[in-house]
Amino acid sequence: MRYGARNQIKAKVVSVKKGDVMSQVRFTVENPHEMQSVLTTESVEDLDLKPGETVLLAVKAVHVIPIKE
Amino acid sequence: MRYGARNQIKAKVVSVKKGDVMSQVRFTVENPHEMQSVLTTESVEDLDLKPGETVLLAVKAVHVIPIKE
Amino acid sequence: MRYGARNQIKAKVVSVKKGDVMSQVRFTVENPHEMQSVLTTESVEDLDLKPGETVLLAVKAVHVIPIKE
Amino acid sequence: MRYGARNQIKAKVVSVKKGDVMSQVRFTVENPHEMQSVLTTESVEDLDLKPGETVLLAVKAVHVIPIKE
Amino acid sequence: MRYGARNQIKAKVVSVKKGDVMSQVRFTVENPHEMQSVLTTESVEDLDLKPGETVLLAVKAVHVIPIKE
Amino acid sequence: MRYGARNQIKAKVVSVKKGDVMSQVRFTVENPHEMQSVLTTESVEDLDLKPGETVLLAVKAVHVIPIKE
After folding, report:
1. What 3-state class would DSSP assign to C14?
2. ∠ Cα D16 D20 D24 (to 5°)
3. Cβ contact (<8 Å) for C37 and D66?
4. Residues D65, A5: contact at Cβ < 8 Å?
5. Is the Cβ–Cβ distance between E18 and E30 less than 8 Å?
6. Interchain contact F61–D (C-beta under 8 A)
7. pTM of the predicted structure, to 2 decimals
8. CB B21 within 8 A of CB A41
9. Residue of E20, E26, E35, E44 best to disrupt the B interface, most CBs of B under 10 A
10. Chains sharing 3 or more CB pairs under 8 A with chain D
């Protein structure tokens, strides 16, 4: 099984909050892993991103797809 | 500074690959952290997500926003 | 009317489930149609996508925009 | 294998256009299938979506994730 | 024509930068307009959003769909 | 503070509608500002976007991230 998504993170379910249409699930990630971002080259230059720098990666919860293998 | 995004992960830049319009940046995440997903209640039931289970979280790289503080 | 979205699929509403803030709408698509995906070149190579191969296209429901003409 | 994405469409690769960072892949979908959309209840009411009506579903190509099983 | 997207902003094209696969288009918005965000109720409470407050709305360029009428 | 998102719009909260899991927030934008879109080069050509033309920019509310500074 191979996915066309650069970020694939093993995580453990902590809690599930069920709503009428949408639900919110909380996970913990214990292991070191890789993340990737694709953004405009212009943004990379504005942020002046360089190897070794620490940043915050923000991801809205609606963009996270859980897969159960 | 507070962000309306449930996932906020501290990460270190590993490499930057600049393209004509879009660029791809690779990060490492060393520390344990939390992730959250919002999906339909129907999906939660199909996946039968329960506390303690391990899943794979897939996120396309275009949905990851680096923030430099 | 022309849209800056590569996927434009004619579909028929099957059901509407209204929630407090979000609603979920189900559609059927009867006719053959085209789909497009944009992903990193790296992902294309990892997946080794080639003409003629069958894949599964996953799209979260929050990314689907109904338009009524 | 179960995915936390309401839309899962079997499709065949037609062509692959590789770019420096991003690539574009074209697929055909031959079989009838279901689609789902999650939107605000307010949008559902503005659009006045009702069973039996035909709409256009727009999805940006960046939101489509190919999975190879 | 009605769209299932809460944000519909009239804008004027300023420049187009064409890349091999992806292109970047810049627009100006002259008129006052409305914006909407859907986020978790938990995020709303963390941010403590209240009428009258000023915030920054961040939107990745890949999520903006131009429509030509 | 610098964000890897091309669209950063100053806006004022008008109303907050809290749901069980998701909430909807309405903002007004008073000042002229810039917007950017990234789409396939093919879409740019289909739309035939040129400087000076007026278009409608559609953005789903789930893609808007409020940031409180």
Report:
1. strand
2. 25
3. yes
4. yes
5. no
6. yes
7. 0.96
8. yes
9. E20
10. A, B, C, E, F
